[in-house]
Design brief:
Strand content: 15-25%
Number of strands: 9
Shape: globular
Order of helices and strands: EHEEEHEEHEEHEH
Strand order of the largest sheet: 2-1-4-6-7-8-9
Number of helices: 5
Length: 182
């Protein structure tokens, strides 16, 4: 699969490494932008406050399935129901919300876990299949929560997650599974 990541930091760069190792062709774009015309799927992994600016510097994104991995650390444009909806308004294609609830600092430990860590995601129909595949290819177990109307819940879940981290859990993985699969 041809993937373009917009953002080369911990999340964008970390996921690019997973996907390259899985055999995908990955182009990484940074602050300078570039052309994503050859991509089959786009990953947006930039600070929330610069979504529009970052996507404005990239050509060839229109209509492409896009995975939004942003969190509202740098604020949010309240015109939109979620950060994923802001991304959708720019790419004008199917969007998924994923990779916003795992610590990139732990990416090096994913493969050594007894069971795959979970990865919540919400997606439009046109982005669901590719997102599930890329979640698996990054070493996680996809956990579909429904359509993009659930993206804000995933973004807001980060507050609860950080409360647990700060209460002593520390950076960690999460795993939701039916009985017998842990």
């Amino acid at each position: 699969m041809r993937i373009t990541t917009i953002g080369k930091g911990n999340i964008g760069g970390g996921l690019a490494a997973f996907w390259k190792a899985a055999g995908h062709d990955v182009q990484e774009l940074g602050k300078e932008g570039g052309d994503a015309g050859e991509a089959e799927v786009i990953l947006v992994a930039v600070p929330s406050g610069v979504i529009a600016d970052a996507l404005g510097k990239v050509t060839g994104i229109e209509g492409k399935p896009t995975i939004d991995a942003t969190n509202a650390f740098a604020g949010r444009n309240e015109q939109f129901e979620s950060l994923a909806h802001e991304v959708k308004s720019i790419v004008d294609g199917p969007v998924a919300k994923a990779f916003n609830l795992n610590f990139a600092a732990l990416y090096g430990d994913v493969a050594s876990q007894r069971v795959r860590p979970s990865q919540f995601f919400a997606a439009d129909d046109g982005a669901r299949e590719v997102t599930e595949q890329l979640i698996r290819d990054a070493g996680f177990d996809p956990l579909f929560v429904g359509g993009l109307e659930h993206a804000r819940a995933l973004e807001d879940h980060l507050g609860l997650w950080f409360a647990a981290v700060n209460a002593g859990l520390g950076q960690s993985f999460y795993r939701y599974a039916p009985p017998g699969e842990l």
